[in-house]
Structures are given as C-alpha cells and as structure tokens.
Amino acid sequence: MVARIIPVEPFDLVIFGGTGDLARRKILPGLYRRLADGQMPPEARIIGAARSDLDDDGFRELVREALYEYQREEDLDSEQVETFLGLLFYVTVDAKGDAGWEDLKKLMNPDRVHAFYFSVAPSLFGPIAERLKDRGIADDEARIVVEKPFGHDLESAKALNASLAQHFNEKQIYRIDHYLGKETVQNLMAVRFGNMLFEPLWNSQYVDHIQITVAETVGVGGRGEYYDRSGAMRDMVQNHLLQLLCLIAMEPPSRYDPDAVRDEKLKVIRALDTVRPDDLVRGQYLAGPSGPSYLEDVGNPNSLTECFIAMRLAVSNWRWAGTPFYLRTGKRLKARTSEIAIVFKDAPHSIFDVPQGRHSNVLSIRLQPNEGMEMSVTIKEPGPGGMRLIDVPLDMSFAEALGEQASDIPDAYERLIMDVIRGNQTLFMRGDEVEAAWAWTDPVIADWESRGHVPSPYDQGSSGPDDALMLLHRDGRRWRDIRQ
Ligand code: NAP
C-alpha cells in the first residue's frame, strides 16, 4: 500500500535564514522529500534569503551539501536532487537593512501561493514583516511561518504578536510547534475522535492519571549560553508538552478545522491550575560518562536554570477534575524517547487474586523513536497453571502495521510546510494560545525565582532527580520506564 500524495498548488517559498542550521538540517531536506514524493509541483520555487554573499549557484551548492549530509542515503536520487536544486534561488538581504528587497520582489512570481518562512532569530521577525508589507512583497493572501521560541515570557510574546499583527492578520500567521506535525500526534486525534471505543472512557471516572515524558540523551553543549537563559520550562514545557497535554485533554471540537480545534486547546490551557511548589521538581545533570555537568556545559557555576523538570498538573474542569497529569522532560537521561501514557483505573472489584493498583490498561502513544501506539490489557497466562494474569501489549507500531506506507510518513517539518501551502492552520499555534501558555508559565517561574529555588542534581543516564520519582510515589503511582 503506498501513501496517497495530494499535490499542493504551485508556490514561491522564501526562507529567511536559508543558509542557517534549521534550514539546512530540516526545512530544505524536508522540501526535497516532498518533491521526490510528488507532492511538490515542479513549478514550485524556493528562495533562500540571508546576508551571506551568495548567488543562485552558491546557494544550490550549499543545499546540495546539506542534502548529502542530512538526508537518508536511500532517499537521495541524483536526478531528483538536480531537479530540486533547479528550483532554488537566492537573494542577499539584510532583515534590518534596505538592500536586496527589490531583488526579492522581482523574483516573486504573481498568481501563486506566497509563503515566507522566518527561520531567523525572533528579533528579526518584526523587521522582516515590516519590509515584506511596506515594499509590497507580501499581499493579504501571503503566509508567514515563524519558528520557536515565540517569546521568552508573556510580555515578549505579546510584543511579538503585536509586531506581526501590524502587517499580517492572524489567518496569515503560522506559528510552528513541530511536535504538532508528528504523525502520532495527529493519530491521537484520530483515535480519540474517530472511534467510539475510547471517548466514553476519556475522563476522570476511568483515567487514573496521564504521563507525558520527553526525554533526551543529549546535553546542552553547543547551545549552552542560549539554553541557560531559557531552561526546560520555557524551552519544552511552555510549548511542546503543553500542546500535547491540550490534545489529550481537550473536548471534541465540533469540526476538524483550525479554529474549532484551537478554541478547544485554548480552553484546556485556561483550565490549568498553577503548579504548587510541592508538585514541581527541577534538576541539573552532574558530570558523567557522557560529558561534563550542566553547570560546566553552560559555563556558569552559579546557574539556577533547570535542564530537567517534572510536575504534577491539574486541569480544573468537569472532565479531568481529580485526574493528575504528570509531565517530565530533561536532558542526559536514560534514553531518547517521547511518550504519552493514558493510565486507566483498575477494575472496581477484582474477582481474581491480584492486588489493586496494577493499572493494567495503559494506552501509550510513542512520538519517538518508532512512532506508534500500544494498549496493554490483562489476559490469562497461557497454560495449565490456574488463573494467573499477565499484562500483554496490543501493539500498533506503524512500521509493522502499515509496512511500506509507514516508511513514507513525512517528517513533521515536511507536513507542516505543506499545510502552510494548503492554507491549513490546524496544526499551528494561534496567538491567543501562545499567550495563554505564557500566562500560565510566567507565575510558576516567578514563584521559584522568588524562592531562589536550587535545582536538584541528577546522574547522567538516569531518570532524573530522586525527588521526581517521589512526585509519583507519594501518590501511590510510578513513572513509566524511560526506554528507547
Ligand atoms: P542559525 O544557524 O544561526 O541561522 C540563522 C540564519 O539567519 C542564517 O541563515 C543567517 O544567515 C540568517 N540571518 C542572521 N541575521 C540576519 C539578518 N540580519 N538578515 C537576514 N538574515 C539573517 O540559526 P538556526 O539554528 O537556523 O535557527 C533559526 C531560527 O529557528 C531561530 O529562531 C531558532 O531559535 C529557531 N529554531 C532552530 C532550531 C534548530 O534546530 N536549529 C530548532 C527550533 C527552532 P546570514 O548570517 O548569512 O545572514
């Protein structure tokens, strides 16, 4: 079975920061794959824009190198690579200057979808938006794509929203959270709202608790200075983990359309209680076999920034009152994995001789690696040994169930860029959502800062600080193992 490709309309996509790391690692290889899969029309054009003094051929060489470095070898076909490179153009432009903008205007083809990807520092969003509009390069139909981080706190997020809103309306703005572009994340909505099986159980009456884990094995080395100003709460929780939480906790939207879905997500963020100090654990990794300590990595022995965070959250509404959401994310942990686990309650009365608190029914949704879902159920252990119960997984690994079709699953960036061209904002964050997320985040950070809270140390390759384990132990629960 081969995935059904729906080609998009011809487009001109300008990538500001086309020479940067994100463009070379993710955006351009992703676009190549869309061309190779037949989704990108051959008339499409991709225009790199940055200050570096390059011509079209220089940019093509840079992209060729990026493709050979970051693309899986089996996806590279020399003929298709040449076709792709032929769609590339380049303009030298300074986001804050005057030169180059006329050249860009001349390059743009009228009568096409126009999209502008801001793969640059957020401080350049406003200046680029202003020039695109004032110089008549972007019209009222054009789309702009902005990268994270979208603000550092509520005030800066509001300022960014306001600077974009001066030139573009909300329907034109695509705020990327690449977690939302993952196949399994969309499958979460399909499973919840496309089946009768789960939705009746999807509430505090049947769900004991929910765990969301995003664990990384890498440290912060390389971008330590940036990271130390941000921390796990701002870098991961405010955006990715909260977005996942929203998709699990939201009410069924009336339609699968951008505003219906985003209205429901917004209600979840607004229903989040603030986190009590007792319900929050912050940590920093120690030096270990994989490298120096967090403090050494960021070059700041006095840093109080967390690179691990775990918390217990309450969504105060009718559906979820009484069901805690446990979130954790961190660096230099045991394995690289992202998982959501819906842990169902025990049967109210066991007729078998087994203790309560086994929580045998767990729906786990793996975002990486090996995207897929697994449902554990209790069955009788086979054999003549009497009525002994075991928990077994009903596994739905995409790779196994869908075969070849699974290997064609587009990477999150590819999918999201195609959604921009189609004009579908469902998987992008709306301005009010981002602000609501910061409005929840800011007081939590302000609280630990006012208390001068010191993050707990943890060993590299562990599951985080011991206090994080206690967060669940004291509730009579335990974290799922962090495993690849
Ligand atoms: P980067 O490697 O530093 O690239 C920055 C790009 O911006 C370069 O192409 C640079 O080219 C261009 N640029 C800088 N100043 C400019 C100016 N005044 N006018 C025009 N172009 C200018 O950064 P990056 O890692 O690609 O990140 C880009 C954005 O994506 C950032 O907001 C980052 O937070 C976000 N992001 C990155 C990643 C990632 O994995 N890299 C992941 C998530 C989000 P010139 O120097 O030639 O001008």
Number of helices: 15
Order of helices and strands: EHEHHEHEHEHEHEHHEHEEEEEEHHHHEH
Major sheet: arrangement of strands: 14-13-12-11-7-10-9-8-15
**Count of the separate structural domains:** 2
Q: Could you give the count of β-strands?
A: 15
What would you report as the Rg, rounded to the nearest angstrom?
24 Å
Looking at CATH, the homologous superfamily of the largest domain is Dihydrodipicolinate Reductase, domain 2
Morphology call: globular
CATH class of the largest domain: Alpha Beta
Strand content: 15-25%
Describe the model.
- The protein is α/β, with parallel strands linked by helices and 484 residues long.
- It folds into 2 domains: 11-147, 3-Layer(aba) Sandwich (Rossmann fold), CATH 3.40.50.720; 180-409 and 432-474, Dihydrodipicolinate Reductase, domain 2, CATH 3.30.360.10.
- Helices cover 36% and strands 19% of the residues.
- The chain has 15 helices and 15 strands.
- It has helices spanning 21-36, 56-70, 78-85, 101-107, 125-134, 154-165, 183-194, 224-249, 258-271, 294-298, 398-402, 404-407, 412-422, 431-450, 466-473, and strands at 11-16, 45-50, 88-92, 113-118, 143-146, 173-175, 207-215, 280-285, 308-313, 325-330, 337-344, 362-368, 372-380, 389-397, 456-458.
- A 9-stranded mixed sheet has the order 14-13-12-11-7-10-9-8-15, sandwiched between helices. Strands 3-2-1-4-5-6 form a 6-stranded parallel sheet, with helices on both faces.
- Helix 1 (21-36) links the parallel strand 1 (11-16) and strand 2.
- Helix 1 crosses helix 2.
- The longest helix has 26 residues, at 224-249.
- It is globular.
- The relative contact order is 0.14.
- The model has no long low-confidence stretch (mean pLDDT 93).
- Bound molecules: NADP nicotinamide-adenine-dinucleotide phosphate.
- NADP nicotinamide-adenine-dinucleotide phosphate is lined by residues 16-23, 50-52, 93-96, 119-122, 124, 147-149.
